[in-house]
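Me: I hope this is not a bother. Any chance you could explain this protein sequence and its structure tokens? It all follows right here:
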Amino acid sequence: IQTALEENFVFKDLTRQQLTPFIAAFDRKTFEQGEKITEQGDPADYFYIIERGAVVFEVNGIEVGTAGGGSSFGELALIYSSPRAATVVALERTSVFRVEREIFSSILQSQAEKSEDSKIAILRKVIFLKDLTDSDLKKLAMAMTPMFFERGELLIRKGDVGEDFFILEEGEVLVRDISMGSTVYEDVTLGPGEYFGERALAKSEPCEANVSSTKKGMAFKIKFITFNKVLGKMSKLI
């Protein structure tokens, strides 16, 4: 359990000491071949770690992926209090460790709320923010909220009005279909520490590219309205 949690981006900042009581709360359950572990559309009740065996993920009856021992699933539905996005079926006799949503939520809260100093350090790596005062950075840090995403999610749609600025903490995104006027640019892949969404905010124009996740992860986002309240018109910075 500990190894699986340490490899899951949601828990990567927790120490082993912090994980110990969380690990103790897991119980073990076995599913036979063909048995459903979760059902698409059902309320989220558990976070799962596969001990041994294998599962298949199905969306609207279509297979979208598989996973085996050491893999985990079910965290995003718990994070967002949303229905299960996929049906998970045991491909063979499969044993899992699972923990209830209430316990999951309590440990998640302590992890997601990074310290103020950590958030300020993240902001200082953004080129157009590096010269801001400590006071301004502190205000922005207070407005940073974590957003978790799965692989294949569309985070920004080309043509939509930009409302958020994103800084990647974990995962990877693809910026594609980039065009500015009559000029078309090559796709760009962004990873942890990189950011996107600033140009649409600065220019108050529709987004000039689609941005989708190629790996599951987490980004901090700050609302455009927050930038303007704290710093004035964002175009002055970029």
Residues 122 and 193 are 7 Å apart (CA to CA). The radius of gyration is 20 Å. The first strand starts at residue 27 and ends at 31. The chain has two domains: 2-110, 114-236.
